[in-house]
Amino acid sequence: MRRRLTLAQQAFGLRGRFSDARVQFGPPGLVCVLDLEPTPLSRSYTVRIEYNGYSRPVVKVLSPPLEGIPGRELPHTFKDGDLCLHLHEEWGPQDLITTTIIPWASEWLLHYEIWRATGGTWCGGGHEPELEAPMERADVLKNYAAFEAMRAELEANHLGKFAVLRDGQLVGTYMSIREARAAGNAHCGVGNFTTQEVRSEPIELGTTAAALA
């Protein structure tokens, strides 16, 4: 089984493959902003990727704004506009964002352009994310702050385990990320919790949340 890639490894991969990408660290983890052009005839899209090290990367198009079609909702997006790029089991923290999420985002943008050009025909397959809407950013930051506040106690009693948090409260700690996700889904519902590994060295945050907004 492949090991989970660290945020530093993901950042190294992003900077090595996309020299113009702006990569920073801050709550709740890694933030990358880069420009994508699905085809030589496409416009350039500025895309923001947020990744906390465990949950799926959150991908949002910053500019130009995504536009719908009269009478049709924008397909394959979450309720807050983030892109739906894959099924839950198709991506994990052992996968490089560079070789998965970014190519998938570029492909999504191509199908978006076709969808608009054809008046509503989506050719990219996939499914609509009815139950997988991500947490609001404020809730993620609340859980991050709660984890930092209880870090000393967690390190003393649960080092090496994975903590599940919801609404700023600890749900439990588990031996593996797989167990933590299963417990989070069972107790909190899909997408309503965050997971964090209990380790002795905290993630170094190079910028504030305000600087990343």
Q: How would you explain this protein's 3D organization?
A:
- By secondary structure, the chain is α+β, with helices and mostly antiparallel strands.
- The chain has two domains: 7-117; 137-212, no CATH class.
- Helix content is 31%, strand content 19%.
- A four-stranded antiparallel sheet has the order 1-2-3-4.
- The longest helix has 17 residues, at 101-117.
Task: Briefly summarize what is shown.
By secondary structure, this protein is an alpha+beta fold. Helices cover about 30% and strands about 20% of the residues. The protein is globular.
Q: Which descriptors apply to this entry?
A:
213 residues; alpha+beta; 2 domains; 4-stranded antiparallel beta sheet; 3-stranded antiparallel beta sheet; 31% helix; 19% strand; globular; disordered C terminus
Give the number of DSSP strands. 7
**Sheet with the most strands, sense and barrel status:** 4 strands, antiparallel
**Average residue-wise pLDDT:** 82
Helix count from the secondary structure assignment: 6
Name the helicity range: 25-40%
Number of domains: 2
User: What structural class do helix, strand and pairing data support?
Assistant: alpha+beta
What strand order characterises the main sheet?
A: 1-2-3-4
Over the alpha carbons, how many angstroms does the gyration radius reach?
18 Å
Order of helices and strands: HEEEEHHHEEHEH
> How far apart are the termini?
35 Å
Low-confidence stretches: 201-213
Strand percentage lies at 15-25%
**Could you say which overall geometry the principal axes of the C-alpha atoms support?**
globular
